[in-house]
Specification:
Cathepsin D, subunit A, domain 1
Length: 289
């Protein structure tokens, strides 16, 4: 029997890392990539070393079973931290279950090796190590889940409104705001800029509303209708009441709309402002001039 050591190492490492990640997520543990990869590396070293050892020495069946399943049961205990031992036990059982299912699939695939394979121990499917395929499947599922959550958050944000409080120099007003993913305005600090209805924020200025010195500058805006500019002012804090929580953003630049907003809304928020602890991050946008 011929063993390709490079494929064996790659196969074991990818399979161990993938199955450990699945086991940790099964018990809702914190799957830290570095910790899982180091544990998978340890499992690979033990697995490859034991495979090479068996090429030269005969191991009794009870010892072989103890080595395989004993090591497999211990690896999940190193892959994450849990407050309860029960979580470690369940994680070990999940890892053993995933490993057995994976072994069953390999048995189905390679149970009747082709004559061309001879006495070679095959670890590939269509030229790729089976562990790599499992790892690719797990990464694809992880990526798909994250993309799905991102699209779901954007869909919720695009169709939601919330109540906001603007605080400026001891004065405050409360408005109904529309969350708009199309609002990508940014100030020179790279922070998102809400657009307010002039009538809705009139009480923040008192008698100085028509005083140019009450505003901090202008924001250049480019739309399908052409280029224009909006006056801006700074507020001390913006309180956003969203999803049963209060999000407070300090020192916010607000743009004053050139015309009253349609409907019941007094302000248009960037979608990022509805995220927990949100402050719009830098990106391409307009700057205060």
């Amino acid at each position: 029997m011929t063993v390709w050591i490079d494929l064996l190492i790659l196969d074991n490492f990818c399979a161990d890392a993938s199955l450990l990640y699945c086991a940790v997520k099964t018990v809702r543990g914190e799957a830290k990539p570095l910790r899982i990869l180091l544990t998978a590396l340890l499992g690979t070293a033990l697995g490859v070393g034991y495979t090479v050892f068996r090429l030269y020495y005969t191991v009794p069946q009870p010892v072989e079973v103890l080595m395989k399943y004993g090591v497999a049961a211990v690896l999940p205990w190193l892959a994450f931290r849990a407050k309860r031992r029960r979580a470690y036990a369940v994680c070990s059982l999940a890892f053993l279950a995933y490993m057995s299912a994976f072994a069953g699939i390999l048995t189905a695939l390679f149970g009747s090796p082709s004559p061309e394979a001879g006495d070679t121990l095959v670890y590939t499917v269509a030229g790729l190590p089976s562990g790599v395929l499992v790892g690719a499947a797990v990464l694809f599922a992880l990526f798909a889940a994250r993309v799905g959550r991102m699209l779901a958050r954007r869909a919720r944000a695009a169709a939601v409104s919330c109540r906001c409080k603007l605080v400026r120099s001891g004065k405050c007003v409360t408005v109904r705001a529309l969350v708009d993913t199309g609002n990508r305005l940014c100030d020179r600090r790279g922070r998102g800029v809400p657009v307010a209805d002039p009538v809705s924020v009139l009480d923040l200025f008192g008698g100085s509303f028509f005083d140019p010195r009450a505003f901090g500058g202008e924001l250049a805006v480019t739309t399908v209708n052409g280029a224009s500019s909006l006056r801006t002012f700074r507020i001390d804090a913006l309180e956003i009441y969203y999803a049963g929580r209060t999000h407070i953003i300090k020192d916010v630049t607000v743009a004053l709309g050139s015309r009253p907003l349609a409907g019941e809304y007094g302000m248009i928020l960037p979608a990022s402002f509805t995220e927990e602890g949100s402050i719009a991050k830098g990106g391409k946008g307009n700057e205060v001039v």
